[in-house]
Design brief:
By secondary structure, the chain is mainly alpha-helical. It contains three helices and no strands. The longest helix is centred in the first third of the chain and has 16 residues.
Length: about 120
């Protein structure tokens, strides 16, 4: 599998670089040995970082009032295919609602600590 990744990286650098100088850089990069599982485990998150407390607070206020819903009210369906989240990466928030006169509030807090 490592050879496939190396070939893919080499091809990508060649295509994007469009120059001889980039080929030398790609060859140098591909000569680097991958880290072992033990080396990766030693460098995992919070390695050598002292415990820190962090408090996050989010206040949301919404109000639905004095609404009138009359007649033949129909709501839709929430349908997700079996592959709805394929190729999803990063941080995602998914909210679905089939109701009427509904307030949906959502908060996502991401805290990143970088020590050097």
């Amino acid at each position: 599998m490592g050879n496939i990744i190396r070939r893919t990286l080499s091809a990508g650098v060649l295509i994007l670089g469009l120059g001889v100088g980039f080929q030398a850089l790609a060859d140098e990069w591909l000569m680097v040995e991958p880290l072992s599982a033990d080396q990766l485990a030693d460098a995992s998150g919070r390695q050598g970082v002292p415990l820190q407390w962090q408090i996050n607070d989010s206040e949301q206020n919404a109000n639905v009032s004095d609404n009138v819903l009359s007649g033949n009210v129909v709501t839709g369906d929430n349908i997700l295919s079996g592959h709805a989240f394929d190729n999803m990466s990063g941080i995602a928030t998914v909210i679905q609602n089939t109701g009427n006169q509904v307030v949906i509030q959502d908060t996502t807090q991401i805290n990143i600590q970088i020590n050097h």
